[in-house]
Amino acid sequence: MVIAVATMMAVASAVVAGSLMVAATAPFDNAFKKQRGAHITAQFDPAKASAAELAKTGKLPGVAASAGPYPSTAVRLLDRSGFQLPTLTLVGRSGPDGAVDRVDLKSGRWAQKPSEIVLDASYEGPAIGLGTTVKMSDAKDTPPLLIVGFAVSASETADAWALPSQVDALASKSNPVASQMLYRFDSASTKQQIIADRKKLAASVGPGALLGTQSWLDTKRAADQGAAATVPFVTAFGALGIVMSVIIVSSVISGAVGTSLRRIGILKAIGFTPREVVRAYVAQALIPAVVGIALGVVLGNVLAVPLLSDTESLYGGVSLSVAWWVDVSVPAAALVVVGLAALIPALRAGRLRTVEAIAVGRSPRTGRGRWAHRAMGMLPLPRQVTYGLATPFTHPVRTLAMLLAVAFGTVAATFAVGLTSSLNAIGTSQDPESRAAVTVTTTKAIDVAPPPPPPVGGKAEDPPPVEDSAASTPEKPKVADPAKVRSAVTSQPGTESYYGKAQTEVAVAGVTGSIRAGLYEGDSRSGSYEMPPGTGSPVRARSWCPPASWRGPAPRSVTRCG
After folding, report:
1. Dihedral in degrees, nearest 10, Cα atoms 207, 209, 212, 216
2. What is the DSSP letter of 378?
3. Whole-prediction pTM value?
């Protein structure tokens, strides 16, 4: 029973550890390869490049595969509570498969009717799930869209998918339909190769037809940065789990055989040969170990499912499962470990004389550890202390196994505490507002200031909300007067400092989703982002700084952008 249970738990933990190590090994590269991700996601103006012309671009020299054109547009959806989602890139596709960007359907099914939509899996939550509806506006006559599935694209080619006819119906004058093409190239591993491929696409169509592109290198860099904080810990925990499993199994098996020396002597006395004794004790260790290994593989797969699901969400990759070779290699390695752990003490016991095995039992061989006793006896310590210090050398293998178990256990505990503190520090650095004693949010009237001008290739979408005033209700917040807000804040006793922040979303052609732009007002040093050593930009990607021609609310001091 001890052998079976110990082997089962060790194998289960080794299966989980091995699965996590596989999942943490280049998660984006594995997902990108599995989905045949797009090296370049391009948006074209359908008025300047027809579908036939775009189809010809897939036959250009150096293009390994292409997909499209797919109709694409930007939409703002409302959930059932009236909350407005961020700007989504909606692409019309009849199915998830294709020569490029084979979208991984996480749950549900693909859209089959014009009133159905599939969202990116990152938007799934309590208010947005399978069977819920979203709308383009809160008007009563707005037709709802039924969410029938959640999917993941490693290339991030879209935030939502629907039938092509639905995309045309949801497009507007401010967000017209564009044509999306997906390309894989023979050479696209460097920035220079991507630039050359883009120039090739732009030259193959008319002037101004190519609106924008998105490189897979940018998507890979963002994904790798997001997973960089956890991959070393996951890999280290996996290695520790496997090593601890080997130590536990070998210790239990060798201990179980080693404690049976007296019984081995009795077996030899009644006629068993040394070879038969060895075979008997190895078999007695392997039989319950095989049962434990089989149960451990099943238990490990069950335990790995929720952990791999969390890993999918963390890395934003495709569906993960226990690799088949993990289920094969772990049991095979466990059998080898059990066999060796049982064979070594069994061979030693088989060589013992019958009388010695019966009389001595578990006592060590004559002379073992005497040098340690003599060396410790020279120390100016009581005899009982020196004897205790020398005793571990009598059983060196058993002592080494115990020391390794304690050492690796300490390492695992250190990693666990360090992982928690490190990730908490990373989360705090990425959310400066969490360091403020009070954070309040208000909205701003549309006619207070004109919307921000677009960056190159993009357009502004909404007037920015201001986050330096009284808290608002989640339903219909009232418009706040910035002057009154400042007066109310400064009049409060005990306020050491405060700063304001205006935010809005801008869309860039070729880039999936929206980009958030931020303007700061006042002394924002207390809410600044941390600057990593050796870099010249804050820890915040996809940011936009206001140009010199900015005519919105002018901040007194722009200390951080993004």
Report:
1. -100
2. T
3. 0.58
